[in-house]
Amino acid sequence: MYLYLRMCIFCRTFAEKLKIYYIVNDITLYLLPNMTLSPLLILTLVIGIIWFVPLVCRKIHVPSIVGFILAGIAIGPSVLNIVGENSTIKLLGSLGMLYIMFQSGSEIDINDFKQYKYRSLFFGLCTFVIPFGLGIITSRYLLGFGWLSSLLLGAMYGSHTLMTYPIVSRYGVQKNVAVNITVGGTLWAITLSLIVLAIAEATIGEEHLAIDDKTLAMSDCLWAIGKLTIFLVSVLWLFPRFVRMLFKRYRDPISEFMVIMLMMVGSALLADFAGLEGILGAFVCGVSLNRLLPNRSPLMNRITFVGNSIFVPLFLISVGIMIDIHAFWSGWATLLIAVAMITTKLIGKSISAWIAQAVFHFSKHERQLVFGLSHATAAGTLAIATIAYQMGILSAEVLNASVLMILLLCTTASFISEHAAKEIALQESAKLEADHEDDYWLLTSINEEKPTLNSPLKGGEFSKAIGERREALKEIAELASLDNIEIKQSADWQDVSNMVEHTSKSVIVYHEAQPINTISRLVVAVPRYAEKERDFITCFGLVRRLAGELGAKVVFYAHPDTQVALQAMCRRPGKYLRASFRNMEGWEEIGILSQTIMENDMLILLSSRKSTASYHPLFEDIPTMLMEHFTRYNSMVVYPEQLTGGPDMDTLLMEIPPASKTWSMITRIKRSVKDILRLEKNE
Fold first, then answer.
1. Strand order, beta sheet including 484-490
2. Residue 675 banded pLDDT, cuts 50, 70, 90
3. pTM above 0.90, yes or no
4. Do 2 and 150 belong together in one domain?
């Protein structure tokens, strides 16, 4: 930190000696007299910075987050004074902070989040309580502040902002256990910090409250509880249902994106109405809409792209503009307070990360990632420091020291998070390649509308329908992480049968009745002896990855013997799947699914080819069953990969299940009906 400050002093002194500072000001004032007031000029400059800074940062191997903050300092009032604390920049920067929190909530793996909810609570308490306690001790006995000021400083140390989450997202490790636990812990840390701030505000308010106004204070408390209830009910219950309804009716990409933006900003507004910070509302909104925003979906790609390319850089630039470098060397008080604050927070967050590693058995890089994510600070710290300063609890020196702490901690967090995320990404990519190196998939859908003379789909409309199905198949492949894929269009089920017969690849036949991101439950029918198939683990992985991306519940219908294998697969370390199980003695009971399937469900049928362990003659009736009972629902028929010969085939042939009595009776009836129809036709 000392070297950094010396560098800033040297650069400013050197610039003044060469008259650079005054020359720049003279030129800008001469050519552009209304420079600081022109929105178009400010927008042009900021967009140029957003384009140029990442190019420079990649060259010098510095995280872009640091570059954007330094660029904001350079154009801000304390250096070149090109852009002041403009209201437009502040507004867009606030939107960027909301974006970061919303994105972190929307990219949580809901299944993992539920599995690790107690771990997240434990880490959230650790990462808040330890820095909070250290902050009270250092503020009270080292810096000599009062108890109320010490409590607020402790709350600033305990909170953190997911500033470096875009780095984690860029490396694709957002589903790592350590990341899920840290993101979940962030919710608790921010909430506890805001509770401390609310207590401080209430304490100040009660000092000026007359005795006759106690009844009024009680009514204010009840009103506060009512506002909080309105916020929670709206964001957690009303918003997801409203968005799902709109997604079903309107498939336009722009409409989908704008409704998500509306929900994010609306949640922040409701949080502010409830007396909370907008960033907390955006985070809760992200968690609430998580199931509707699969991480690999086109909509999520658009959200991430717009946030990372525009709003997040604008927020970082706005933070840099707000930093006043002159305050850092105007007196020793600010520097001493900043050193104490930075040291306290680093020690507290580091201890929390070490405890998380010991309790949850994290690797070294996972511990570093936890530390990198949890010690960066921005919005929460600024909110507490600014409100406390306005209330007269904290001095101007503490406010300036808080800004310096934000700058340095964002810098260190960026370097640490990038290093750890890169290492974890390399390890996970190696595992992924090992898991999928031999998997080949053939994806197809049935052309339900064929262009005829009386068909409503003609020419371009028919081609558009085919293109939409192809895009739907690509989206399924992306959501399920299917690497080696081939996409074909099938004219009918006879065409599908020919494909299945003449290829050994795993085949998926997909029917889409509503957008895949509106699915809330996967109903999976598994035939008996499916666990004996060579490709059973791969098919199970398909279901697990889909459930993880969609945040959907999974219900398996299977024979009790097959359920044992499925339950074991669900409990595998690192590949946990939260699922429920229903008994289905034989495939002839598949009709019960038409009575239990609900809106927003997707039916997945694990079928198989002839002469395999799990094959059942009723598989031939799957097309008829789907057309009669499940056309209103999304459905997927999966044919596992099959070897074309060798010892494995002989083993499978020996394990063909015997036909049940019910099936034998159904077969005899079908044969009798066919014989009667054949006789009538011959006559």
1. 484-490, 440-446, 506-511, 634-639, 601-606, 521-525, 553-558, 579-583
2. low
3. no
4. no
pLDDT number for residue 349: 92
Alpha-carbon Rg for the chain in angstroms: 30
Residue 272's pLDDT band, with cuts at 50, 70 and 90, is confident
DSSP label of 513: S
Q: Are residues 376 and 394 in the same domain?
A: yes
User: Do 184 and 297 have their domain in common?
Assistant: yes
Nearest CA among 153, 129, 158 for reference residue 140: 153
pLDDT tens digit sequence for 520-576: 899 999 988 888 777 788 888 888 888 888 878 899 998 888 888 888 888 776 667
Q: Residue 126: which of 199, 186, 194 has the closest Cα?
A: 186
Q: Are residues 219 and 335 in the same domain?
A: yes
Specify which residues 522 forms β-bridges with.
554, 602
Residue 683 lies in a domain: no
Single out the residue of 549, 618, 614, 659 nearest to residue 111, CA to CA.
549
What pLDDT score was predicted for residue 415?
Answer: 84
Same domain for 6 and 151:
no
The total of structural domains in the chain comes to 3
Q: Which residues make Cβ contacts (< 8 Å) with residue 566, sequence separation at least 6?
A: 526, 531, 540, 556, 558, 579, 581
Average pLDDT, integer, range 57-82: 79
The DSSP bridge partners found for residue 442 are 486, 507
* Contacts for 75 with CB less than 8 Å, ≥ 6 apart: 45, 49, 82, 83, 317, 320, 321
Which residues, in sequence order, are bridge partners of residue 444? 488, 509
Q: In whole angstroms, what separates CA 574 from the centre of its chain?
A: 18
Is the same domain home to 22 and 54?
Answer: no
Specify the pLDDT at position 86: 67
What is the CATH classification number for the domain harbouring 596?
3.40.50
Strands (E), 496-600: 506-511, 521-525, 553-558, 579-583
Mean pLDDT of 497-509: 82
- Which CATH number goes with the domain that contains 188? 1.20.1530.20
682 within a domain of the structure (yes/no): no
- Separation of alpha carbons 88 and 36, rounded Å: 12
Question: Does one domain contain both 1 and 64?
Answer: no
Q: Are strands 521-525 and 506-511 parallel, antiparallel or unpaired?
A: unpaired
Residue position matching structure tokens 């007396």? 275
Half-sphere exposure of 513 (CA within 13 A, CB side): 16
Is 55 inside a domain boundary?
Answer: yes
CA pseudo-torsion sign 44, 46, 49, 51: negative
Furthest-apart CA atoms within the chain: distance in Å: 111
Q: In the prediction, which pLDDT does 444 show?
A: 84
Q: Provide the domain limits for residue 5.
A: 1-33
Q: Is 668 exposed, middle or buried (0-12, 13-18, 19+ CB in 10 A)?
A: exposed
Residue 668 lies in a domain: no
Question: Of all helices (H) and strands (E), which one includes residue 36?
Answer: none
One domain, residues 15 and 96: no
Cα distances (Å, whole numbers) of residue 13 to 6, 9, 83, 95, 320? 10, 6, 21, 35, 20
- Cα–Cα distance, 33 to 532 (Å, whole number): 78
